[in-house]
Prior knowledge:
Largest sheet: 2 strands, antiparallel
Helix content: under 10%
Radius of gyration: 14 Å
Distance between the termini: 22 Å
Structural class: mainly beta
Shape: extended
Number of helices: 1
Strand content: 25-35%
Amino acid sequence: MDPDFDPHKPRIHVSILDQSNGEASIEWDVQGCQSFRKDLGRWMRLRPNETIPS
């Protein structure tokens, strides 16, 4: 899925995680962005039946 906006000044948190098999994985989390707009219910529309992250 491609983003439906042009990000302006995104703030991204990158985590490097050790896996049980000895390898590493990378997790990217957008923490904030000046382009974000409030869209109540978006998570539920895009990911039905999944828990909303907190």
